[in-house]
Amino acid sequence: MALVTLRIVDGVDRGRVYEDLPTPITVGREEGNVVRLSDERVSRFHLKIQEDRNRIVLTDLASTNGTRVNGEPVQVAEIRPGDLITLGKTVILVGSRQQIAQRLAELRKRLEAERQKKGKVSPEEAVSSSEWSSSWYSPSLDSELHWEEEAESLRPIAELIPPELPADLSPAQLAQLAELLQFFHLRLRRVIRTGTVHQASDDEHVTLDQRQWQSLLDLYARLAEYLRAIGEPPL
Question: Where does the record place the FHA domain (predicted)?
Answer without folding.
Answer: 25-74
